[in-house]
Sequence to fold (399 residues):
Amino acid sequence: MLGRTEPPPSADAPATQGVELRVTLVLDPATAERLDVDRLAVPGAEIRVLATGLAGFTSNGPLQRWTDVLVVEVDARDARALETFERFVRDYAERLPVVGAVRDLTVPITRAMLRAQAVDVLPIPFTPDDLLQSIEHGRERLFTLRPDAGRRGGRVISFVGALGGMGSTAIATQAGILWAESANVCLIDLDVQFGNAALYLNVRSQLSLADLVEAGERIDVELLRSVAEIHPSGLSVITSPPDILPLDALTADFVDRLIAMAAEAYDVVLIDLPSAWVSWSLSALQKSDLIVMLTTLSVAGVHQARRQLELLDANGLAERLRLVANRAVVPLFGKVDTSEPEKLLRRRFAATIINDWSTMSTAIEEGRQVGSVKVKSRLEKDLRWLVAMLATVDAVSSL
Fold:
């Protein structure tokens, strides 16, 4: 976080003034390096600086949901860069105010950016007052677009198995039931071929993910809610299609829009991903605040987890990962020993879920919470600990 102060109270200030804006500055690395961070404090704003260009922002779902106003540096002398900026602003015009920042700013460039629906144009170098003025223009647009802008977007957490049969769907559904006790939660089953979330929750829905795929760009919050089936716990479930679809029936653009709409509609969005990597898997993970990878402590489980970790690390997603050991066997004396697998993986397990097949199998066969099958079980304790851990992690702070 760079620069944060509280705005002075004013009896005549509009209601929007009471909300501290979260502002992201997407700058060229050279500009970011020369920026005097100590002078960046702006009243009523919490500011983050991203020096990876616009592509780094568009691939970062958590930061997108965090951001209320975006300031993007553009090389206006580069026609391609200007075209990319204009396309980005048009795509985000309905949900995110964007300010263009330009060196050697001219009147024609200003007009071109404003025509592209930028809310303001900021000269580089800029003063704190210049930045404050642009942020205020963004604030005005934000509350036109989203009158409830004080409400932040929901948290998105993806569950994936290191390989098939790791129990990721069972853990995702049970976590959803428990989390629904205190929040408005939606579980989306993105395994369009072998998704079992509906079976594990014992819900039967006339509508499914296939109806959202058919809607395409017409997806909105209202349609999303109408497709979701409500479990007795209060958990909303968007089930996988009743008929097997090819994995490429989903696209990265569709997954992006689906997750964005779900995060707008719910406090928490849980994504159950297929274990196989497909063309849109990376997009779903990039939009996730956290990634829960389920594995066992078996040789095969640890081996496949290591391969998945390498892939996540190569795509800059390792910091969002929480590795969970599922179906762990507790010895007669002592506790589960994960030291050897952690050495091989070069990463610590964030949580361990005990192996209690009898309780879990009964719960998923009847669509119940494990605690209703076996009161005060170790399995329920482990699951509640996992949910509490996921609920308290600030994913954006680590980016």
Notes: Confidence is low (pLDDT under 50) at residues 1-18.
